[in-house]
Amino acid sequence: MSISSASEKKSLQEVSNQPVLEIEKNGEDVLQESDYTEAEYRRILRKIDRYLLPLMWVAYGVQQADKTGLSTQALFGLREDTGLVGQQYSWLSTIFYLAYMVFEFPSSYMMQRVSVGKTLAVLMLLWGIVVLCTGFCQNWAQLMVLRTLQGAFECTISPSFLLIIATWYKTSEHASRSVIWGTANAGFGIIVQLCMYAIGNHAEKQGGLAAWRGISFFLGAITIVLSICSWFLLGTPREVAWISKEERRMVQARIVANRTGTDAHKNAKWKRDHVIEAFVDPSTWFLFFSVLLSGLPNGGVTSFGSLVYKSFGFTSLETILYNIPRDGVSIIWFLFVGFSCSKWPGIRFWLMLAAIVPAFVGMLAMSLLPSSTSFRWIKFGMYLMTVTANVNGLFLWLFLPSNVAGRTKKSVVSSILFVAYCTGNAAGSQFFRSQDAPRYVPAITACAICFALQFLVILAWRFYLVYLNKSRDKAAVAEGLTSEQVKELGALNAEKDMTDKQNVHFRYTY
């Protein structure tokens, strides 16, 4: 059923006791999916993918390389050249995520009030300069200052991408599209690993500039160039210049059924009731603890993964090369998960649970195996298994555009999510104590425990979301609403900037 006349609008309004919102304020009709044909939607989707996906893939890959490059730099003398002792190296990761957390709140507010794409581009330029300047550092204090600035500037990319995904794509497309740019961590990582191998190999054979300094110059330069491209191409439908006015309306009509709101109007007003709801919603805290428990292992592996590899008995250059198969497995797993989500809706949470199992087994086995180098290939295989859990970080972020409605609530939940993410990653790097080097058995054991706890939290969370959907379905049936009426009313309510709790016709994705 489509809403095409005033009488039909009135009928639906009476049935649901929900006011109908006119989205357009200049006398135009309400946005509906039926405004355009499937052929037109397919054409605009191809254009969106052509512009956004390659750029987001590279941008996300560069961000990950900038953030984790410290682990590879540690293989080539960063700690020795800058005189790091004790837990000072761990603090370089901890301070990064603490700055990430502190500056995420004002960054989210600024993006809502100004521009998502332009804000991200400027901050990308600034963190690129910071990464480049890291190559000039001589001591721990200088590294700490630059890592703090890098965390402050880099904190915007994930919330920016989530807002961009939510304003361009249908809910059913969130997983498959996000998985594509999520593979950048591994895909672009392979490219960067090969470049860093070349830099390290040249430094070992020819001398001259220290390899870790060359890596900083290389990563910083890439980020600076990318920020210029992002300025012109990245943003929400309301912000970019590469679509026409009619195409912009088509994009907004296409996603109106998401029931989380479109980008038709700039919702700059900060709503107090959205803020309160974000803090009392149980899903917020399921998300918080899921992300926290995911961040604890990630924070340690991000900074110490290369050192753990080296502890198996590999050289510095071998460590870089042997990390490439792990990235390759990650790409295959991400693509499989993305394909599965698009083909079989409703399995996202089951895939997250399945991803945790091999990661838990791999971490536990690594902590229990003897230190002898004769076991290094078994340890290599166990560490390879842990890569499956990487997809959960992305899927947890996807909860925001798929299951949180209301612009202010999205911003608040995004900030809460970042607190969990940053707290987990900051604390996770402290699991790895200098006195436990080179195997870091207590830290790896702690990572295995975190995976086990995360499994239980995600399982309970899914049961809760299923309960909410079934309760709302029963209420709709009791009111005599058809599924199509529920869908249309949910879309209309979302355009009033209603939250997922306020909009009784909203349905959660799991």
Automatic annotation (TrEMBL):
A GO term for molecular function: transmembrane transporter activity
Keyword line: Membrane, Transmembrane, Transmembrane helix, Transport
Superkingdom, natural source: Eukaryota
GO cellular component: membrane
Coiled-coil blocks: none
Localisation: Membrane
A Pfam family matched in the record: MFS_1
Transmembrane regions listed in the UniProt entry: 89-107, 119-141, 179-199, 211-234, 285-308, 320-337, 349-368, 380-400, 412-431, 443-464
Keyword Transmembrane on entry: yes
Membrane topology: Multi-pass membrane protein
Name of the featured protein: MFS general substrate transporter
Taxonomic path: Eukaryota, Fungi, Dikarya, Basidiomycota, Agaricomycotina
